[in-house]
Amino acid sequence: xxGRRARSGRGWDASPPRAGDPTPRPRRGxxxxxxxxxxxxxxxxxxxxxxxxxTQPWGAAGSARRASDPARGEATSAPRDEAEVxxxxxxxxxxxxxxxxxxxxxxxxxxxxxEETASQVLDRYDEVGxxxxxxxxxxxxxxxxxxxxxxxxxxxNELRQRGVDGxxxxxxxxxxxxxxxxxxxxxxxxxxxxxxxxxxDAVFRRLVGMLARKGYPAGVAIRAVKDAIxxxxxxxxxxxxxxxxxxxxxxxxxxxR
Length: 257
Hints:
By secondary structure, the protein is mainly α.
């Protein structure tokens, strides 16, 4: 073909291209001798070459960037204020459930917060109402009595374990009167009797023991179980008639003392 590239025995036709022919591109994979990179030219240096002028090893560059970035690493960050750390600890504790002042003080001590800083933070929380041991005690008594059927004695023990002082605990427990306590005890026994199995005397002992573990006085527990068993069946009523609740309560009281 005239005017077009043609194969000859010697290779490609070297005649000049005609107008409209595509401009031939240099073969890939080889560099022309005139385009060889100049070792002295920083623009042509391989960025991976640590010896090239104007460059530094990648590891050193990464270390420099990390050192200049204040958001990376604890070594470059400024030490945090202890009071700020204490406030964060308290707020995380309070996010789980209400806490007493004593519980928060214990959490701060375990995290190494000084007594002075802890006292300042907790005093401030007292002032703004974030910590309120009286409100905590009232809510605890109401919730634990309604949910678990706990009596005054068991509730007083739980409040003491959480650092509530005696006067504050007593005020909260006064809202749980004897009538409410007796009604709760009877409801607990009635619920257990639905699935109770065994002889009346064995059932009686188990139910009295259950109420005792929940903090009910011996007299309240024995009367609640006796009345519930008496209402269950004629046989159970006959057994209940033989129970001297007052004598048993006195005996239990002697054992407790």
